[in-house]
Amino acid sequence: MKSSTAPAAAPVLSLLVGFAAVSAFAQTPAPQAASPYTLTVFATAPPNLSAPDSIAVVDDHVFVGYGDGHAPDGSDHKNSQVVQFSMDGAVEHIYTVPGHSDGLKLDPITHRLWALQNEDASPNVAIIDTETQQQKIYQFASTPHGGGYDDIVFRGCKIYISASNPARNPNTGPEIVRAKLHDGVVQVEPLLMGNAAAVDVLTGTNITLNLQDPDSMTLDPLGNIVLDSQADQELIYVTHPGEPNQQALRLPLSFLSGKTAMPVETDDTAFVTSSKGFILFADKGLNTVFKLTRTGFVPGSAYTAADGGPFVGTLDLTSGVVTPVVTGIMSPGGLVYIDTSRQDADGRNDGDRDHSDQDADRCDRDDRR
Question: CATH for 14-368, among 3.40.50.1000, 3.40.350.10, 2.120.10.30, 3.30.230.10?
Answer without folding.
Answer: 2.120.10.30
